[in-house]
Amino acid sequence: MSVVSRATAIAHPNIALAKYWGKRADGHNLPAVPSLSVTLAGMATTTEVAFDASLDRDELHLGGAALPPDAEATRRVAGLLDRVRAASGRRERARVVSRNDFPTAAGLASSASAFAALALAASAAAGLPTAPALVSDLARKTSVSAARSAFGGFVELRAGRPGDEALAATPLAPEDHWPLAVVIAVTREGPKDVGSSDGMRHTAMTSPYFPAWVDAAPSLFDAVRAAVLARDLAALGAAAEASALCMHASSIAASPGLLYWTGATVEVIAAVRRLRAQGTPAFFTIDAGPHVKVFTTPEAQAAVGAALLAVPGVLRTITAVPGGGARLAPSSGGA
Ligand code: ADP
Ligand code: DP6
Ligand code: CO
Questions:
Q1: Ligand located closest to 289 CA
Q2: Domain check: are 279 and 186 in the same one?
Q3: Could you tell me if the CB of 19 is within 6 A of ligand 2?
Q4: ipTM score here?
Protein backbone atom coordinates (compact mmCIF):
# COMPACT_ATOMS: atom_id res chain seq x y z
CA MET A 1 0.00 0.00 0.00
CA SER A 2 1.70 3.18 -1.12
CA VAL A 3 1.54 6.46 0.75
CA VAL A 4 -0.31 9.14 -1.19
CA SER A 5 0.31 12.83 -0.60
CA ARG A 6 -2.45 14.96 -2.00
CA ALA A 7 -3.77 18.52 -2.11
CA THR A 8 -6.48 20.36 -4.02
CA ALA A 9 -6.33 23.98 -5.16
CA ILE A 10 -8.72 26.39 -6.84
CA ALA A 11 -7.64 29.29 -9.04
CA HIS A 12 -9.40 31.82 -11.24
CA PRO A 13 -8.44 33.00 -14.71
CA ASN A 14 -7.35 36.58 -15.17
CA ILE A 15 -7.83 39.09 -17.97
CA ALA A 16 -4.93 41.31 -18.91
CA LEU A 17 -5.65 45.04 -19.21
CA ALA A 18 -2.04 45.52 -20.34
CA LYS A 19 -1.21 42.48 -22.46
CA TYR A 20 1.65 40.01 -22.31
CA TRP A 21 2.49 38.74 -25.81
CA GLY A 22 5.96 37.40 -26.59
CA LYS A 23 8.76 35.84 -24.59
CA ARG A 24 12.36 36.83 -24.08
CA ALA A 25 14.71 34.76 -26.17
CA ASP A 26 16.70 33.32 -23.27
CA GLY A 27 14.59 30.22 -22.74
CA HIS A 28 13.32 30.77 -19.17
CA ASN A 29 9.71 31.48 -20.19
CA LEU A 30 10.13 35.14 -19.34
CA PRO A 31 7.73 37.74 -20.77
CA ALA A 32 9.17 40.27 -23.22
CA VAL A 33 6.78 42.96 -21.95
CA PRO A 34 5.19 43.96 -18.62
CA SER A 35 1.54 43.08 -18.07
CA LEU A 36 -1.28 43.94 -15.69
CA SER A 37 -4.44 41.93 -15.11
CA VAL A 38 -7.56 41.47 -13.04
CA THR A 39 -8.21 38.07 -11.50
CA LEU A 40 -11.86 37.08 -12.02
CA ALA A 41 -14.28 35.43 -9.65
CA GLY A 42 -17.01 33.50 -11.43
CA MET A 43 -14.84 31.10 -13.44
CA ALA A 44 -12.42 28.60 -11.90
CA THR A 45 -10.09 25.66 -12.29
CA THR A 46 -10.07 23.04 -9.53
CA THR A 47 -7.07 20.71 -9.48
CA GLU A 48 -6.18 17.80 -7.22
CA VAL A 49 -2.60 16.49 -7.18
CA ALA A 50 -1.79 13.13 -5.61
CA PHE A 51 1.82 11.97 -5.53
CA ASP A 52 1.66 8.19 -5.54
CA ALA A 53 4.64 5.81 -5.52
CA SER A 54 2.62 3.18 -7.40
CA LEU A 55 2.42 5.34 -10.55
CA ASP A 56 5.04 4.96 -13.27
CA ARG A 57 4.19 8.25 -15.02
CA ASP A 58 2.34 11.49 -14.36
CA GLU A 59 -1.34 11.27 -15.28
CA LEU A 60 -3.69 14.11 -16.23
CA HIS A 61 -7.45 13.72 -16.06
CA LEU A 62 -9.02 16.86 -17.49
CA GLY A 63 -12.77 17.42 -17.35
CA GLY A 64 -13.39 13.73 -16.64
CA ALA A 65 -11.21 12.34 -19.45
CA ALA A 66 -7.78 10.74 -19.08
CA LEU A 67 -5.41 12.55 -21.46
CA PRO A 68 -2.75 10.59 -23.37
CA PRO A 69 0.82 10.86 -22.03
CA ASP A 70 1.95 12.74 -25.13
CA ALA A 71 -0.89 15.31 -25.08
CA GLU A 72 0.33 18.89 -24.88
CA ALA A 73 -1.48 19.45 -21.59
CA THR A 74 -0.03 16.29 -20.02
CA ARG A 75 3.48 17.33 -21.03
CA ARG A 76 3.03 20.82 -19.58
CA VAL A 77 1.67 19.35 -16.35
CA ALA A 78 4.57 16.87 -16.12
CA GLY A 79 7.05 19.72 -16.68
CA LEU A 80 5.66 21.61 -13.70
CA LEU A 81 5.67 18.44 -11.58
CA ASP A 82 9.33 17.82 -12.52
CA ARG A 83 10.17 21.22 -11.02
CA VAL A 84 8.27 20.39 -7.86
CA ARG A 85 10.07 17.04 -7.59
CA ALA A 86 13.44 18.73 -8.09
CA ALA A 87 12.71 21.34 -5.40
CA SER A 88 11.23 18.92 -2.86
CA GLY A 89 13.38 15.85 -3.34
CA ARG A 90 10.28 13.75 -4.00
CA ARG A 91 10.42 11.14 -6.70
CA GLU A 92 6.88 9.83 -6.98
CA ARG A 93 4.78 10.47 -10.05
CA ALA A 94 1.44 12.16 -9.60
CA ARG A 95 -2.18 11.80 -10.64
CA VAL A 96 -3.63 15.18 -11.51
CA VAL A 97 -7.41 15.52 -11.70
CA SER A 98 -8.50 18.91 -12.99
CA ARG A 99 -11.60 20.60 -14.29
CA ASN A 100 -12.33 24.02 -15.70
CA ASP A 101 -15.87 25.32 -15.23
CA PHE A 102 -15.47 27.41 -18.42
CA PRO A 103 -14.17 26.60 -21.94
CA THR A 104 -10.63 25.22 -22.16
CA ALA A 105 -8.04 26.60 -24.61
CA ALA A 106 -10.61 29.01 -26.05
CA GLY A 107 -9.08 32.38 -25.23
CA LEU A 108 -10.61 32.62 -21.76
CA ALA A 109 -7.28 32.15 -19.90
CA SER A 110 -7.60 28.48 -18.94
CA SER A 111 -3.81 28.16 -18.91
CA ALA A 112 -3.69 30.94 -16.28
CA SER A 113 -6.11 29.35 -13.80
CA ALA A 114 -4.91 25.81 -14.63
CA PHE A 115 -1.23 26.32 -13.92
CA ALA A 116 -1.79 28.57 -10.91
CA ALA A 117 -4.01 25.87 -9.38
CA LEU A 118 -1.56 23.12 -10.32
CA ALA A 119 1.45 25.02 -8.92
CA LEU A 120 -0.31 25.54 -5.59
CA ALA A 121 -1.74 22.01 -5.29
CA ALA A 122 1.52 20.33 -6.33
CA SER A 123 3.60 22.48 -3.96
CA ALA A 124 1.26 21.71 -1.06
CA ALA A 125 1.10 18.00 -1.87
CA ALA A 126 4.91 17.83 -2.01
CA GLY A 127 5.35 19.72 1.25
CA LEU A 128 6.94 22.77 -0.37
CA PRO A 129 6.17 26.29 0.93
CA THR A 130 3.07 27.76 -0.72
CA ALA A 131 3.69 31.51 -0.42
CA PRO A 132 1.91 33.17 -3.37
CA ALA A 133 5.15 34.59 -4.81
CA LEU A 134 6.65 31.07 -4.97
CA VAL A 135 3.47 29.66 -6.52
CA SER A 136 3.47 32.57 -8.99
CA ASP A 137 7.05 31.92 -10.12
CA LEU A 138 6.43 28.16 -10.46
CA ALA A 139 3.24 28.75 -12.46
CA ARG A 140 4.95 31.38 -14.67
CA LYS A 141 7.59 28.87 -15.74
CA THR A 142 4.80 26.88 -17.47
CA SER A 143 2.41 29.65 -18.58
CA VAL A 144 3.33 33.30 -18.09
CA SER A 145 -0.23 34.52 -17.54
CA ALA A 146 -0.61 31.91 -14.75
CA ALA A 147 1.88 33.88 -12.63
CA ARG A 148 -0.81 36.56 -12.25
CA SER A 149 -3.58 34.16 -11.12
CA ALA A 150 -1.59 33.29 -7.98
CA PHE A 151 -2.84 36.63 -6.67
CA GLY A 152 -6.29 38.19 -6.51
CA GLY A 153 -7.43 41.64 -7.56
CA PHE A 154 -5.23 43.79 -9.79
CA VAL A 155 -1.90 42.11 -10.45
CA GLU A 156 1.24 43.15 -12.31
CA LEU A 157 4.10 41.21 -13.83
CA ARG A 158 7.20 43.04 -14.97
CA ALA A 159 9.06 42.08 -18.13
CA GLY A 160 11.87 39.57 -17.78
CA ARG A 161 15.42 40.90 -17.65
CA PRO A 162 18.68 39.28 -18.74
CA GLY A 163 19.80 36.82 -16.07
CA ASP A 164 16.35 36.42 -14.48
CA GLU A 165 15.39 32.91 -13.55
CA ALA A 166 12.84 33.58 -10.83
CA LEU A 167 10.10 36.03 -11.72
CA ALA A 168 6.81 36.33 -9.83
CA ALA A 169 3.83 38.60 -10.29
CA THR A 170 3.04 41.15 -7.58
CA PRO A 171 -0.32 42.37 -6.29
CA LEU A 172 -1.03 46.00 -7.20
CA ALA A 173 -4.43 46.50 -5.54
CA PRO A 174 -6.92 44.16 -3.85
CA GLU A 175 -10.12 42.96 -5.51
CA ASP A 176 -12.26 45.52 -3.65
CA HIS A 177 -10.04 48.41 -4.84
CA TRP A 178 -12.42 49.08 -7.71
CA PRO A 179 -15.76 47.30 -8.24
CA LEU A 180 -15.51 46.82 -11.99
CA ALA A 181 -17.85 44.43 -13.75
CA VAL A 182 -16.91 42.28 -16.73
CA VAL A 183 -19.18 40.91 -19.43
CA ILE A 184 -17.57 38.33 -21.69
CA ALA A 185 -19.20 38.00 -25.11
CA VAL A 186 -18.68 34.38 -26.16
CA THR A 187 -18.59 34.24 -29.94
CA ARG A 188 -17.62 30.63 -30.59
CA GLU A 189 -17.71 27.37 -28.66
CA GLY A 190 -14.70 25.07 -28.80
CA PRO A 191 -10.95 25.54 -28.65
CA LYS A 192 -9.00 28.03 -30.74
CA ASP A 193 -6.94 26.87 -33.70
CA VAL A 194 -3.63 28.35 -32.54
CA GLY A 195 -2.71 28.24 -28.84
CA SER A 196 -1.22 31.27 -27.14
CA SER A 197 2.33 29.89 -26.90
CA ASP A 198 2.43 29.00 -30.60
CA GLY A 199 0.71 32.23 -31.63
CA MET A 200 3.16 34.49 -29.86
CA ARG A 201 6.15 32.46 -31.03
CA HIS A 202 4.97 32.77 -34.63
CA THR A 203 4.38 36.51 -34.13
CA ALA A 204 7.82 37.08 -32.62
CA MET A 205 9.50 35.12 -35.40
CA THR A 206 7.69 36.54 -38.43
CA SER A 207 5.88 39.81 -37.70
CA PRO A 208 7.61 43.04 -38.76
CA TYR A 209 5.44 44.73 -36.13
CA PHE A 210 6.56 42.56 -33.22
CA PRO A 211 9.50 44.85 -32.32
CA ALA A 212 7.11 47.82 -32.45
CA TRP A 213 4.75 46.02 -30.05
CA VAL A 214 7.61 45.32 -27.62
CA ASP A 215 8.59 49.02 -27.84
CA ALA A 216 5.03 50.27 -27.29
CA ALA A 217 3.96 47.88 -24.52
CA PRO A 218 5.80 49.45 -21.53
CA SER A 219 4.19 52.87 -21.90
CA LEU A 220 0.76 51.28 -22.45
CA PHE A 221 1.40 49.28 -19.27
CA ASP A 222 2.32 52.51 -17.41
CA ALA A 223 -0.91 54.16 -18.57
CA VAL A 224 -2.99 51.14 -17.54
CA ARG A 225 -1.28 51.02 -14.14
CA ALA A 226 -1.84 54.73 -13.45
CA ALA A 227 -5.50 54.49 -14.50
CA VAL A 228 -6.10 51.48 -12.24
CA LEU A 229 -4.55 53.27 -9.27
CA ALA A 230 -6.62 56.41 -10.01
CA ARG A 231 -9.79 54.35 -10.71
CA ASP A 232 -10.20 56.32 -13.93
CA LEU A 233 -12.39 54.20 -16.24
CA ALA A 234 -12.05 56.42 -19.31
CA ALA A 235 -8.25 56.49 -19.07
CA LEU A 236 -8.14 52.75 -18.38
CA GLY A 237 -10.35 52.02 -21.35
CA ALA A 238 -8.19 54.04 -23.73
CA ALA A 239 -4.96 52.38 -22.57
CA ALA A 240 -6.37 48.84 -22.31
CA GLU A 241 -7.98 48.98 -25.76
CA ALA A 242 -4.71 50.29 -27.21
CA SER A 243 -2.75 47.46 -25.57
CA ALA A 244 -5.11 44.82 -26.97
CA LEU A 245 -5.22 46.36 -30.45
CA CYS A 246 -1.41 46.77 -30.64
CA MET A 247 -0.96 43.15 -29.56
CA HIS A 248 -3.41 41.90 -32.19
CA ALA A 249 -1.89 44.18 -34.83
CA SER A 250 1.46 42.48 -34.27
CA SER A 251 -0.15 39.05 -34.84
CA ILE A 252 -2.22 40.13 -37.82
CA ALA A 253 1.02 41.31 -39.47
CA ALA A 254 2.79 37.96 -38.93
CA SER A 255 3.52 35.76 -41.93
CA PRO A 256 1.13 34.10 -42.51
CA GLY A 257 -1.12 36.51 -40.65
CA LEU A 258 -2.58 35.28 -37.38
CA LEU A 259 -6.09 36.59 -36.85
CA TYR A 260 -7.85 35.43 -33.69
CA TRP A 261 -10.97 37.47 -34.50
CA THR A 262 -14.19 36.50 -36.22
CA GLY A 263 -16.82 38.80 -37.68
CA ALA A 264 -18.64 38.73 -34.35
CA THR A 265 -15.50 39.97 -32.58
CA VAL A 266 -15.53 43.09 -34.74
CA GLU A 267 -19.29 43.54 -34.29
CA VAL A 268 -18.83 43.53 -30.51
CA ILE A 269 -16.08 46.16 -30.76
CA ALA A 270 -18.50 48.32 -32.73
CA ALA A 271 -21.26 47.72 -30.16
CA VAL A 272 -18.96 48.80 -27.31
CA ARG A 273 -18.11 51.99 -29.18
CA ARG A 274 -21.83 52.66 -29.71
CA LEU A 275 -22.54 52.12 -26.01
CA ARG A 276 -19.79 54.57 -25.12
CA ALA A 277 -21.08 57.16 -27.59
CA GLN A 278 -24.46 56.88 -25.84
CA GLY A 279 -22.84 57.59 -22.46
CA THR A 280 -22.51 54.03 -21.09
CA PRO A 281 -19.08 53.46 -19.51
CA ALA A 282 -17.56 50.43 -21.25
CA PHE A 283 -14.34 49.33 -22.91
CA PHE A 284 -13.21 46.08 -24.52
CA THR A 285 -10.20 43.83 -24.47
CA ILE A 286 -9.50 40.71 -26.55
CA ASP A 287 -7.11 37.84 -25.85
CA ALA A 288 -5.85 35.08 -28.12
CA GLY A 289 -9.33 34.02 -29.16
CA PRO A 290 -12.51 35.43 -30.75
CA HIS A 291 -14.30 36.49 -27.56
CA VAL A 292 -14.55 40.07 -26.37
CA LYS A 293 -14.26 40.99 -22.70
CA VAL A 294 -16.10 44.19 -21.85
CA PHE A 295 -15.36 46.10 -18.65
CA THR A 296 -18.01 48.37 -17.20
CA THR A 297 -19.46 49.55 -13.90
CA PRO A 298 -21.77 47.35 -11.76
CA GLU A 299 -24.61 49.82 -12.48
CA ALA A 300 -24.24 49.47 -16.25
CA GLN A 301 -23.52 45.72 -16.29
CA ALA A 302 -27.08 44.61 -17.09
CA ALA A 303 -27.46 47.11 -19.94
CA VAL A 304 -24.07 46.18 -21.36
CA GLY A 305 -24.93 42.47 -21.12
CA ALA A 306 -28.22 42.99 -22.97
CA ALA A 307 -26.54 45.07 -25.68
CA LEU A 308 -23.83 42.45 -26.24
CA LEU A 309 -26.34 39.57 -26.39
CA ALA A 310 -28.16 41.45 -29.13
CA VAL A 311 -25.04 41.51 -31.35
CA PRO A 312 -25.31 38.94 -34.17
CA GLY A 313 -22.83 36.13 -33.54
CA VAL A 314 -22.73 36.51 -29.76
CA LEU A 315 -23.75 33.08 -28.47
CA ARG A 316 -23.93 33.89 -24.77
CA THR A 317 -22.35 36.08 -22.13
CA ILE A 318 -20.43 35.26 -18.96
CA THR A 319 -20.40 37.89 -16.23
CA ALA A 320 -17.60 38.23 -13.70
CA VAL A 321 -16.17 40.58 -11.09
CA PRO A 322 -12.66 40.91 -9.61
CA GLY A 323 -11.82 37.88 -7.48
CA GLY A 324 -9.23 36.32 -5.21
CA GLY A 325 -5.97 34.50 -5.77
CA ALA A 326 -5.26 30.78 -5.88
CA ARG A 327 -6.21 28.97 -2.67
CA LEU A 328 -6.12 25.49 -1.22
CA ALA A 329 -9.46 23.75 -0.94
CA PRO A 330 -10.74 23.27 2.61
CA SER A 331 -9.43 20.03 4.13
CA SER A 332 -6.59 20.04 1.61
CA GLY A 333 -3.79 19.75 4.15
CA GLY A 334 -1.00 18.95 1.76
CA ALA A 335 0.59 15.96 3.42
P1 ADP B 1 -6.23 29.85 -22.94
O2 ADP B 1 -6.67 31.04 -23.70
O3 ADP B 1 -7.40 28.98 -22.52
O4 ADP B 1 -5.30 30.18 -21.79
P5 ADP B 1 -3.84 28.65 -24.03
O6 ADP B 1 -3.50 28.28 -25.44
O7 ADP B 1 -3.02 29.69 -23.40
O8 ADP B 1 -5.39 29.00 -24.00
O9 ADP B 1 -3.72 27.40 -23.07
C10 ADP B 1 -4.52 26.26 -23.23
C11 ADP B 1 -3.74 25.07 -22.73
O12 ADP B 1 -3.62 25.11 -21.28
C13 ADP B 1 -4.44 23.76 -22.99
O14 ADP B 1 -4.20 23.32 -24.31
C15 ADP B 1 -3.78 22.87 -21.97
O16 ADP B 1 -2.48 22.49 -22.38
C17 ADP B 1 -3.62 23.79 -20.79
N18 ADP B 1 -4.73 23.66 -19.82
C19 ADP B 1 -5.90 24.33 -19.79
N20 ADP B 1 -6.64 23.95 -18.74
C21 ADP B 1 -5.94 22.99 -18.09
C22 ADP B 1 -6.15 22.24 -16.89
N23 ADP B 1 -7.26 22.39 -16.14
N24 ADP B 1 -5.19 21.39 -16.49
C25 ADP B 1 -4.04 21.26 -17.22
N26 ADP B 1 -3.76 21.97 -18.33
C27 ADP B 1 -4.70 22.81 -18.77
C1 DP6 C 1 -3.30 37.18 -25.00
O2 DP6 C 1 0.15 32.94 -20.76
O3 DP6 C 1 -1.45 31.73 -22.28
O4 DP6 C 1 -3.92 36.18 -22.93
O5 DP6 C 1 3.00 31.84 -21.49
O6 DP6 C 1 2.85 30.62 -23.62
O7 DP6 C 1 1.42 29.91 -21.70
P8 DP6 C 1 2.12 31.04 -22.40
O9 DP6 C 1 0.94 32.00 -22.94
P10 DP6 C 1 -0.29 32.61 -22.14
O11 DP6 C 1 -0.52 33.96 -22.98
C12 DP6 C 1 -1.53 34.86 -22.64
C13 DP6 C 1 -1.65 35.88 -23.71
C14 DP6 C 1 -2.84 36.80 -23.58
C15 DP6 C 1 -2.48 38.11 -22.88
C16 DP6 C 1 -2.28 38.03 -21.40
O17 DP6 C 1 -2.91 37.22 -20.71
O18 DP6 C 1 -1.48 38.85 -20.89
CO1 CO D 1 -3.36 31.01 -21.86
A1: 1
A2: yes
A3: yes
A4: 0.99
